[in-house]
From TrEMBL, chain A:
Keyword Transmembrane helix carried by entry: yes
Domain of life according to the entry: Bacteria
Any single biological process term in GO: peptidoglycan-based cell wall biogenesis
One Pfam family in the UniProt entry: CTP_transf_1
Gene Ontology molecular function, alphabetical: nucleotidyltransferase activity
PANTHER family: PHOSPHATIDATE CYTIDYLYLTRANSFERASE
Record carries keyword Magnesium: no
Membrane-spanning residues: 49-82, 94-113, 125-144, 156-174, 180-200, 224-242, 248-271
Alphabetic keyword roster: Membrane, Nucleotidyltransferase, Transferase, Transmembrane, Transmembrane helix
Name of the protein in its database record: Phosphatidate cytidylyltransferase
Record-level GO cellular component terms: plasma membrane
The organism of origin for this protein: Histidinibacterium lentulum
Automatic annotation (TrEMBL), chain B:
InterPro entries assigned: Plipid/glycerol_acylTrfase
Sorted UniProt keywords: Acyltransferase, Transferase
Pathway: Lipid metabolism
UniProt KW Transferase keyword: yes
Source species, domain of life: Bacteria
Name this protein carries in UniProt: 1-acyl-sn-glycerol-3-phosphate acyltransferase
GO MF: 1-acylglycerol-3-phosphate O-acyltransferase activity
GO biological process annotation, one example: phosphatidic acid biosynthetic process
Organism: Histidinibacterium lentulum
Domain annotation Phospholipid/glycerol acyltransferase: ranges: 48-170
Length: 314, 231
């Protein structure tokens, strides 16, 4: 059974409708508010919504191309994220070859394993083989200074930017009874719930929140996070028809993905603070880098993938 | 030297040079996502000498790529004749694609004083890209001592803005001896112009200019350098 054209159209129409409402709301706020202090927040919000339009367009194009299009899209996103992370990791000239291998061999192979549905290699290639072999390549250059820090940071970059993120297209490879060929709906569900939760957290928490969860690292507040997770659960319920989860299951999955995503965003904020940067790069206009957009999806993807696999797949 | 540069290249050669230039800009952007930060000056077509740190053969193409096209068209890198005239390929890319001002670093081979060529290019209205360290910096220090050329320009052409230009991360992207460039993000930071002060001597001016340039290095790179020095 392939995804019926009707469902695809319904989902696309819903996404366009939601983004249109968000854009309209932002524009109305921008027109109404004259208080100078409030302006930067509205501008941030609007640029975020704009980048979602772009993301929706790209994802829509990838879905039209098919499975290979989605895999290629996330491979490119991984490349951009890895580039941003490795720009700030500790490395010396002795790591040049192992880093080149990470970019030009490990990353393409990981996405090839996703594309060809090679489940076992997909799950072990980076955590086992790259983990063990790349330090050997660095060690053969014979420069021990800061060795453990260097290889650890390289592996951390690969795990997050490539391994974790590749779990998003891998959702299409799960074998769920009665859901064959509809894996792309899971990706859309996952992205909308995680990003929606982030948006609600950002919008409510920064203004109404009181208690910061990690002062000195992130402006995230307890109230904002709670609102974001609850909002994600509601979005999940509204989109339950597109998933194999059922309404209660969809709410739980959406809330879990959103919560783990916020945790990821917090962890990447800590890294940025440590390295003294506000954004990972400036590649997405007005937005920062790919990593700034993807940090929550990176943490949430493996959890969402494995929960789905363990509970609903055969 | 085995290659020579035609005095008046044909239209076809000029077109090939322009297309090669476009391709190089695209390649640099794909690999390094190179980005300009105009901190001390704006990207305006004032006549300038962009003087930069030199750690990699990629330095000059990166600065050249991040300049806005209108400024890039009138900006010429000052480069070593012994390097750019070695093969026919280089003799095409250096003098014709980048329109390098070629100077000979080897005094015994010189037919012309390097300063003469540099000042002539300035008098023709060009802006320049200059690496005042002379050679690629292979040391742990941020900069090598500057050669005298920058001082001579400041003294002889005081109306030209001398803009310190820091290239971050290129030493990690393509260290000497490596073939595959790492796709890391590279930034080029343009600082406030440095001018010769009344009564300032050569050594003091060059030291001050080097200080202004080194101060542009972004802090993450200073962290990475500290890690490398510890290693």
């Amino acid at each position: 059974m392939s995804p019926s054209a009707n469902d695809v159209l319904t989902l696309a129409a819903a996404v366009v409708l939601v983004l249109s409402v968000l854009t309209l709301a932002g524009e109305l706020l921008r027109a109404r508010v004259t208080d100078d202090r409030a302006h930067p927040m509205i501008e941030t919000y609007l640029t975020r919504v704009q980048s979602w339009w772009a993301m929706v367009a790209l994802l829509g194009l990838a879905v039209l191309i098919g499975k290979s299009g989605v895999v290629a899209l996330f491979a490119i996103a991984s490349f951009a994220a890895l580039r941003e992370m490795v720009t700030y990791t500790t490395k010396t000239r002795a790591d040049h070859l192992s880093l080149a291998l990470a970019f030009f061999v490990v990353l393409p192979l990981q996405y090839a394993f996703v594309g060809f549905g090679m489940q076992s290699l997909f799950g072990t290639f980076i955590p086992v083989y790259a983990f063990l072999l790349l330090p050997v390549v660095s060690a053969l250059r014979g420069a021990p200074g800061g060795f453990l820090v260097r290889v650890s940071e390289t592996q951390w970059a690969l795990m997050t930017a490539v391994f974790c993120l590749s779990h998003v297209p891998a959702l299409m490879t799960l074998d769920i009874p009665g859901y064959a060929g509809r894996g792309v709906f899971l990706i859309v569900f996952f992205i909308i719930c995680v990003q929606g939760g982030d948006l609600i957290e950002h919008g409510f928490g920064r203004r109404l929140g009181r208690v910061q969860v990690a002062p000195g690292i992130s402006p995230k507040t307890r109230e904002g996070i709670a609102a974001g997770i609850a909002g994600a659960a509601l979005i999940g319920a509204a989109l339950a028809w597109a998933t194999p989860f059922g309404v209660a299951g969809a709410m739980a999955m959406a809330a879990t993905a959103s919560a783990v995503g916020m945790a990821g965003s917090l962890v990447f904020s800590a890294i940025k603070r440590d390295r003294g940067v506000k954004d990972w790069s400036h590649l997405i206009p007005g937005q920062g880098g790919f990593m700034d957009q993807l940090d929550s999806a990176i943490f949430a993807a493996p959890v969402f993938f494995h929960l789905t696999g363990q509970i609903w797949a055969v | 030297m085995t290659a020579t540069v035609p005095a008046t290249p044909s239209r076809l050669r000029r077109l090939a040079a322009r297309l090669t230039g476009r391709a190089l800009v695209l390649f640099v952007r794909l690999i390094t996502a190179a980005r300009a930060e105009w901190e001390g000056v704006g990207p305006v077509p004032h006549q300038r000498v962009y003087f930069a740190n030199h750690v990699s053969n990629g330095d000059m193409p990166v600065i050249w790529s991040v300049l806005p096209p209108a400024i890039r068209r009138r900006t010429r890198p000052v480069a070593a004749a012994d390097y750019w005239l070695k093969t026919r390929m280089r003799a095409f890319i250096g003098p014709e694609v980048f329109r390098c001002v070629l100077v000979d670093r080897r005094a015994e081979h010189r037919t012309e004083d390097p300063m003469t060529a540099i000042l002539r290019a300035l008098d023709e209205g060009a802006s320049l890209i200059l690496f005042p360290e002379g050679n690629r910096n292979m040391t742990a220090d941020p900069l090598l001592p500057f050669r005298a050329g920058l001082y001579n320009i400041a003294r002889d052409r005081p109306e030209v803005e001398l803009v310190p230009t820091w290239i971050a991360n290129l030493n990690a992207i393509l260290p000497k001896g490596e073939v595959i460039p790492l796709p890391l993000i590279c930034t080029v930071t343009f600082g406030a112009p440095v001018a010769l002060r009344p009564g300032e001597d050569r050594a003091a001016f060059l030291a001050r200019a080097a200080g202004e340039l080194a101060a542009l290095a972004p802090s993450p790179e200073r962290l990475a350098d500290a890690g490398e020095a510890a290693g």
